[in-house]
Design brief:
Length: about 110
């Protein structure tokens, strides 16, 4: 029986490989125009950037601000959670939370903010 940490580590490795492939594809296509794109799981660095750069600064959100720190914390024990931080030239540009679907071939994005 796999431990939680072992399962999560396998998913993180798969995610990082996918993130690297996406970035490489954009670089090869020449669509980044010199921008350094980086994709990573939502970690303490991403939450710190969200807190200092975004929190309280979202324009015209109808339903209030999303509390990314709380949303990530609620999903901390889910092995199949999909979390993504999008960085451009070291600046946090987007956050997304979702799940790997039962067929394990697609990702369902429940939350996305840029």
């Amino acid at each position: 029986m796999s431990t939680f940490c072992g399962v999560r580590e396998r998913y993180l490795k798969i995610y990082q490989e996918a993130f690297d492939e996406v970035v490489a594809t954009y670089v090869e296509a020449g669509v980044l125009a010199g921008i350094e794109l980086r994709l990573s799981p939502i970690d303490k660095t991403a939450l710190s950037a969200w807190s200092s750069e975004w929190m309280g600064k979202s324009a015209k959100q109808k339903h209030g601000e999303w509390q990314w720190d709380r949303m990530v914390a609620k999903r901390i024990k889910r092995c199949k959670k999909f979390d993504l931080a999008i960085w451009g030239d070291g600046i946090l540009c987007g956050l997304s939370l979702g799940l790997v679907t039962r067929g394990k071939k697609t990702v369902r994005m429940n939350y996305l903010q840029a």
